[in-house]
Amino acid sequence: MKKKILKISLIVIFIALLIFCISYIIKANSNKSEKFLTETPLIKTIEIKSIATGKINPKEKIEIKPNISGIIKEIYVKEGDQVEVGQLIATIKVVPVVATVNSTMQSINSAKIQLSNQKRIFEREKLLFIQGVISKQEYENAETQYKLAKQTLNQAEKEYDIATKGVASGLENLASIQIRSTTKGMILALPIEVGNQVIEANTFNAGTTIATIADINKMIFEGKVDESDAGMMKIGMPMNIVIGALQDEKLQGNLSFIAPQGYDENGAVKYNIKADLKIPNGVLIRAGYSANAEIVLNERKDVLSVREALVQFDEQNKPFVEILQPNGEYKKQDITLGLSDGLYVEVHEININDKIKIWNASEEDNK
Question: How high is the pLDDT of residue 33?
């Protein structure tokens, strides 16, 4: 009898446990379905952007170089000064080379002796020609030699002036000890000091740079981008340029140059780009400022979009979302994806009022 009662008791306990487990599973599943959060789509402008790092530089820089060699005697400007065309920047003191001066002096003496001799010959030939003793051709030959002797002396004197003064008389506009600005702008660099030796610019030598001048109202952004971004860029694209030194200023610009050839940088191919800046009135942009340029490569304005985290993919890798139905269940809805910025993606086949299941809610979503 006792054994029968024990058996019945065990059966009752088993049935109770089974009912409890079934009830717990149902309740757990019900709670689980209730825990899913939802999110509705939104109308948003989606942009694909590229960030280029670089610097702000003048569009054109002019280097002022001397056309005679010598030593800087005086400097009349400083870095940051605004200069006009023709404004005096510096003067050069010519240091004569003793051997050259001596050689030109000897040339003058020789030329004077030759001229004196040719003058006597010419005057004698002229008298004989008047008397009819010699022909006209002989007279003209003597006259020619006399003129050549005068020219030789004149040339020797000019060479002496060049050796001692740096320029021949009458040619001051071609070579001068005065270094003047050839353009209007700001002195960006003045890499000389009084007493420095400078070398003239010629066919065989670039010459010493006296000053670098640029118009700071005509500045450009020069930077670099990845090859994947370069392929999507076109000349004329608008850009937003942020300068680190001017936190409150965001300048506008337009892409003006994309390098035809890239270069390797740490295993990645980069392309140089340039953009013309639009500088607001009253804003001083200094050459060499570090800057970042933001370029919109592709854009879809005011499109229906969802967070990419809400999108799921089936076994065929087709995208879908789960939409909450009036009965509390979720229905699978296939969708077509459009442009994505990495966070939001353009979608089709859903409505703005649809409640989309957040199937992989993060701690931030739960908050």
Answer: 46
User: Do 193 and 239 belong to one domain?
Assistant: no
- The reported pLDDT for the residue numbered 236 is 93
Q: Are residues 194 and 242 in the same domain?
A: no
**Helices and strands counted in the chain (H then E):** 5, 22
pLDDT of residue 161: 75
pLDDT band of residue 307 (cuts 50, 70, 90) is: very high
Is residue 62 helix, strand or coil?
strand
> Are 78 and 112 part of one and the same domain?
no
Pair type for strands 356-358 and 344-348: unpaired
The CA radius of gyration of the chain, in Å to the nearest whole number, is 44
| pLDDT score of 359 | 82
Q: Which DSSP symbol is given to 279?
A: P
Query: Does a structural domain hold residue 249?
Result: yes
Q: Which two tokens stand for residue 301?
A: 């304005």
CB 233 within 8 A of CB 101: no
CATH of the domain at 155: 1.10.287.470
Residue 162 CA: distances (Å) to CA of 65, 97, 110, 165: 19, 11, 18, 5
- pTM of the predicted model, to two decimals? 0.61
Residues 86 and 194 in one domain: yes
Task: Please state, as a whole number, how many other Cβ atoms lie within 10 Å of the Cβ of residue 127.
Answer: 12
| ∠ CA 55-60-63, rounded to 5° | 110
Return the higher-pLDDT residue of 237 and 33: 237
Cβ atoms of residues 259 and 223 within 8 Å: no
Asked whether residue 246 is assigned to any structural domain, the reply reads yes
Are 224 and 288 within one domain?
yes
Share of the chain above pLDDT 70, in %: 84
CA 187 to chain centre: 20
